[in-house]
Fold:
Amino acid sequence: MTGLVAHLDLDAFFASVELSRRPELKGMPVIVAGSGPRAVVTTASYEARLFGIGSAMPAARAKRLCPEAVVIAPNSAAYREVSRAVMEIIAAHIDRFEQLGIDEAFLDLEGLHSPKAAMRRLVAEIYEQTSMRASIGIGPNRLVAKVASDAEKPNGFVVLTAEQARKRFADAPVSLVPGIGPRTNERLGEMAITTLAQLRAADERSLIERFGARQGPALIALASFDGSAEVVTDREAVSESRETTFDQDISSGDELEGELKRLAAELAEALQRNNRSGRTIRIKVRLDDWTTVTRAKTISALTNDYATIIEVATALLREYGPQRPVRLVGVGVTGFTPARERDQLELPLELPAA
Ligand SMILES: [Mg+2]
Structure:
């Protein structure tokens, strides 16, 4: 079964949110951690990582490694808000996506006309609107996409087939692959299997003897970068849009804005009638050569108000400034109710009790 999946992962998310709130800290080693005796580092900026500081490390140890690091207490509300804005931008561009944690998601790219260009635009837009950098991995399944997004962080953009992933990570430790934890890693080590190439070439019967009839073959599949491309949408999307295809392509900016106004009025009325609202306003423009462009902006409050929608949509259209006659124009509003927000976005701020 083939598919095309992207994994989007925000870079040093909590630290990046703090840096966007306090630009004077740019370039300094910043760690986000609580202050209790059991506090752990939730994120370290890339400057702090140079000192060997990483996520889940006890904060006390991080401070020993880099005494000059600026330690900031986690602000979950701020992270949730930025996370939500990012996910809404994704929702405005991609129909099917699955949020994994506060700062990552799988995106179903199957059927997209130019998936790489779409991901470049998405990342640029996330940065423009939230100042968060994201790394993207694209592959035939979730496994390849996830490993690819991690391969060149920060600001990574890595596209791999399963075969390319097998080659590129042949000598990587087996623990590179999500799904092979410390315990399995250790047991594989006892069989003298330390790299992914070794695991892929391992004798299946020995693996079955050691790990059982299910996990044995599953380990070889992981090392082969075989996996599922399924992306499960777990939220109720609010997405309402209106668009017009013109009988004759339009070159006049005034005419285009006039049509946008008409569509926005219709859209606002439909949203109000159904008592729905969203925070991301997007426009869609198709040129006479069939290039299709979407632009979106996420605002701070939910809206279904005509004046707000048309103001943002017009600004987006002017900013884009179509360079060719336009065949189609559309406007939409997107938002959603996260289904599992509370469970998913719980922040690991402390070491688990011993
Ligand atoms: Mg991340």
Summary: The longest strand covers residues 235-250. Residues 253-273 form the longest helix (21 residues). The pocket of magnesium ion is lined by residues 9-10, 13, 103-104 (CB under 6 Å).
